[in-house]
What does this fold into?
Amino acid sequence: MSRLVQLVLLIALTPAALWAVPEAGLPSTTDALSQGIVAVIIVAVFTLLAMEKVHRVLVVMGAVSLLWAISYLTPLHLISFEGAKESLDFNVLFLLASMMAVVGVLKRTGVFDWAVARILNKADGDAGRVLMLLAWFTAILSAICDNVTTVIFVAPMALQMARTMKINPVAFLLPVVMAANIGGTATLIGDPPNIMIGSGANLTFMDFIANLTAPVTVMMFGLPWYSRRYFGKDFQDRSGSLGISVEVPPVTDPQLLHWALWISGFIFIGFVTHGMTGMPTSVPATIGAGALLVVQDVLYLRKHRPTQEERQHGLLAVIEKEIEWPTLSFFGFLFIAVGAAVQTGLIDTLANWLGQGIHAGSEQLGLGGLGTLLFAAIMIAWVSGLLSSIIDNIPFVAVMIPIIHRLAPGFAGDTTVLWWALALGACLGGNGSAVGASANVTVVGVAERAGIRITFAEFTRFGARVAAMTLVVSSLFLATHVFLGARWSLVIWTGFVAVILLVKMLMRSLPGARLHTLAVNE
It folds into this structure.
């Protein structure tokens, strides 16, 4: 009888025991074969994205499905379900969703139409000046909050301006996203990799401002200039004629706008003070979005009686129509795919190769102490830029931080330059492709929702050139930092910015300068 009871208990408890096996017990295999398979899958993902034969969400979803099939059906464990949950960056996902909701409420106030008309009138109908104002506004806003939040706000405005001026929207959208990534490079909170670097290297908000703002400003002077020439045909078709006056529409819901601006202000304060409060940027964004949705419903119900069609306004309307669910899904699956590269050791292997390459290159060129440091900084900047253009820069930076800590003691001079090299490469390299930065994917999704298709190749043709030009400027900055020191580097680059501003002011004051500018735009 006791054996029968034991058998019954064994049968009853066996399923429970199987379910109780923790998924954490399936660690990723880190052998060369596992890393090679992940590398092939990631290369295939970006190849399919570039070919654009399949929707981007289906591409990354298929890649994750393949990674899981191999992990659970073969001896090779690339990434488990538990590992996938760890790879998801919920801070990015909640930040995106929350700020999309905030923008959705702002749209209902009519403030975007009002701002578009004001900027068009300020630019006097000149497409080139509109582009310049958009680019600088985007860069400055990205520096004081973050680039993803910025493009969520600015992209709808750029679309509306393009429609009003009857110009190709891509000619505005691509420079806007480039400006967001460049501007975000200047500060600690402008781009997620900078937050990680600041924490890992004990660099303060003012360290970033003092070292990176001047070279980033130089880059921003070049972006509108290059954009006008790259998209010259689009501006010629519009002719950039002066003297256009657009009627400024009124704000349709000033009371809701008043509340939205106050709540948005508190959200941005949360972004700036995250170092003191310990809150990830998604927390104030989510709190603000929730508060704004509540305010919207309260104000609506004060003026309208509830009906069966109530779901068409407020919370459900924003969630269904304003949040870019395909974009969020793409991010989620992409995080998992890159997580497999991290957990199998593929990114760690690539980073170690970088260290070996730096020392081998230094020996081959016979460089001295400062020369080796500059070679290392330039290598880190360009390799980071290249990899950040094809994979998400956040896991790469996470792996590079301990690598740089390990490499730094072996160099002579001020090794802080290595951290600036990593920040510049990771942030600016994101402009190289449509999936190189979170802001890029967001803008492509916003454009797609508006019926505008920005192809992977179209984005890369423009973005890769912008990334290369900004990395060249970065290399010059790194050289002055290594050979002249941080203080003299700051003096030189600040002086360079002052000279550019002086030249631009002199050109504008010359007789006929405005006509010359118009002729160039045309």
In short: DSSP finds 24 helices and no strands in the chain.
